């Protein structure tokens, strides 16, 4: 017995009352992550619609901004009011509507919305070239879909008993049209298309030989996804071509700047070159920021195209290219162009950064050299100032000796009654003594300051 079955088992008590399974009670007591159910529903969202018998599928994709999501939902609400329909499944990003005349699936993606209409056909019913699966929808509603039409394709599902593959191959031989064809789903069906837009639509013809309903639904879903992601992937090609011309000019400008840097003679020349290089770096980073999403999206869409083709499990029809070969020959070069331009942008950014660093290093070295010269000049001035200070110190000894002798003279005059020495004699004797004391004191002070400076270093 599995866990889910075990969780539903009711335990009978001795009195016959039904008790809730203890394990179920344990799960109910646990705190559930708020995204658990939403993530699990997303995992099971957008299943293929089983298709039985002849069916016409019309697939429309409108590219729009992320802010148009609410307008798309409002437009769907108008459709449900205008039609007698039931919402089979519904969420914020997808909806399935079933009406009397058609069935529609709506899907909301990051930058586009898709509308897939299904209309059953009677066996052997001839199909008018202008017929669509959404003909029963009101034209005003279709005109109110937000965004710009990016993809419009028809998928006609028929049985091999209605249209034989041999008749299709014979018509191709007579018309000389270039067609992409393959047997898919382990050779259970045939697919024909030329990926060209005629009367506003590209077209696929699917001839069911022995597919199940779900196989037919998965095959049709993969085909419309291949067409959608193919066109969305190609959105990066015009951007790559536009950037290519700008890249060529920027690379030439960078080469000219390098010559200018080599020939720079003064610091001013280097600073001008650095300013121009910084402006170029800003332009490169702006271009990368503007195109990163587009190139990344093209790479992701291309991966989805190749994945859907692989899921078709196609086998070759003699004389006709398969879907994989066609995409390798037509889509892959465009994707390689986008990848090459993206790589060139990154390389140009790296080169600009390296050259900017090199030029900044040169400017810094020149500034350091100027600083060293300035320090040398300051050192020379300090040395001259020291010599001048030493000279001033000699004069200061004379001055202090003079003022000291004057003090002794005044002192001797004031005490001449206490001794019989001449005032001039006393003054003359004091002059050399005062000079020696001042000299020794200044010398000692200078040595003390020098020792303190050496300790500080």
Structure description:
The chain is an alpha+beta fold. It folds into four domains: 3-36, no CATH class; 46-231; 236-372; 384-456, no CATH class. Helices cover 60% and strands 15% of the residues. It contains eleven helices and eleven strands. It has a nine-stranded mixed β-sheet with strand order 4-5-6-7-3-8-11-10-9, sandwiched between helices. Strand 4 (86-90) and strand 5 form a beta hairpin. Helix 7 (213-233) packs antiparallel against helix 9, helix 8 (236-263) packs antiparallel against helix 9 and helix 10 (323-414) runs antiparallel to helix 11 (423-456). The longest helix has 92 residues, at 323-414. It is elongated and about 155 Å long. The two termini are 86 Å apart. Mean pLDDT is 84; it is low at 1-18.
What tags apply to this protein structure?
11 helices, alpha+beta, two-stranded antiparallel sheet
Please specify the SSE layout and strand pairing.
Layout: H1 3-8, E1 11-12, E2 18-19, H2 22-29, H3 36-43, E3 55-63, H4 69-82, E4 86-90, E5 94-98, E6 103-108, E7 112-120, H5 139-143, E8 148-159, H6 165-175, E9 180-184, E10 189-193, E11 202-208, H7 213-233, H8 236-263, H9 267-312, H10 323-414, H11 423-456
Parallel strand pairs: 8-11
Antiparallel strand pairs: 1-2, 3-7, 3-8, 4-5, 5-6, 6-7, 9-10, 10-11
Coarse structural class: alpha+beta
Topology pattern, helix = H, strand = E = HEEHHEHEEEEHEHEEEHHHHH
Number of strands: 11
- Estimate nothing, just give the exact number of structural domains: 4
Choose one word for the global shape.
elongated
Sheet with the most strands: spatial strand order: 4-5-6-7-3-8-11-10-9
Report strand %: 5-15%
Mean of the pLDDT scores? 84
Low-pLDDT runs of 5+ residues are: 1-18
Largest sheet: 9 strands, mixed
Provide the gyration radius in Å: 46 Å
Percent of residues in helices comes to 55-70%
Q: How many helices in DSSP terms?
A: 11
The first-to-last residue Cα distance is 86 Å
């Amino acid at each position: 017995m599995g866990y889910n079955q075990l969780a539903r088992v009711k335990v009978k008590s001795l009195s016959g009352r039904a008790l809730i399974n203890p394990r179920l009670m344990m799960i109910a007591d646990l705190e559930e992550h708020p995204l658990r159910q939403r993530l699990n529903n997303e995992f099971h969202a957008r299943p293929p619609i089983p298709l039985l018998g002849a069916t016409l599928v019309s697939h429309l994709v409108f590219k729009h901004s992320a802010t148009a999501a609410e307008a798309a939902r409002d437009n769907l609400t108008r459709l449900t009011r205008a039609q007698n329909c039931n919402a089979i499944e519904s969420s914020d990003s997808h909806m399935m509507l079933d009406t009397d005349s058609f069935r529609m699936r709506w899907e909301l993606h990051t930058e586009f919305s898709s509308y897939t209409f299904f209309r059953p056909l009677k066996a052997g019913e001839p199909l008018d070239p202008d017929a669509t699966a959404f003909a029963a929808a009101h034209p005003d509603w279709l005109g109110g879909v937000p965004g710009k039409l990016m993809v419009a394709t028809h998928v006609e599902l028929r049985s091999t008993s209605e249209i034989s593959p041999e008749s299709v191959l014979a018509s191709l031989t007579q018309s000389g049209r270039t067609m992409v064809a393959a047997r898919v789903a382990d050779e259970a069906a045939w697919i024909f298309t030329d990926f060209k837009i005629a009367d506003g639509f590209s077209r696929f013809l699917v001839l069911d030989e022995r597919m199940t309903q779900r196989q037919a639904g998965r095959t049709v879903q993969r085909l419309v996804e291949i067409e959608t992601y193919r066109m969305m992937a190609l959105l990066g090609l015009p951007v790559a071509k536009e950037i290519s011309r700008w890249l060529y000019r920027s690379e030439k400008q960078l080469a000219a700047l390098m010559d200018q840097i080599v020939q720079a003679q003064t610091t001013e020349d280097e600073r001008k070159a650095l300013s121009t290089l910084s402006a170029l770096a800003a332009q490169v980073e702006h271009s990368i920021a503007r195109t990163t999403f587009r190139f990344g999206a093209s790479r992701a869409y291309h991966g989805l195209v190749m994945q859907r083709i692989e899921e078709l499990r196609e086998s070759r029809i003699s004389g006709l290219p398969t879907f994989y070969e066609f995409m390798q020959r037509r889509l892959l070069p465009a994707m390689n162009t986008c990848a090459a331009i993206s790589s060139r942008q990154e390389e140009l950014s790296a080169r600009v950064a390296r050259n900017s660093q090199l030029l900044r290093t040169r400017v810094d070295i020149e500034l350091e050299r100027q600083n060293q010269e300035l320090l040398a000049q300051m050192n020379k001035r300090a040395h001259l100032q020291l010599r001048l200070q030493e000279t001033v110190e000699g004069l200061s000894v004379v001055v202090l000796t003079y003022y000291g002798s004057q003090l002794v003279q005044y002192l001797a005059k004031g005490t001449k009654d206490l001794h019989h020495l001449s005032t001039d004699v006393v003054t003359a004797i004091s002059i050399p003594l005062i000079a020696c004391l001042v000299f020794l004191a200044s010398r000692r002070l200078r040595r003390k300051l020098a020792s303190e400076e050496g300790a500080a270093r």
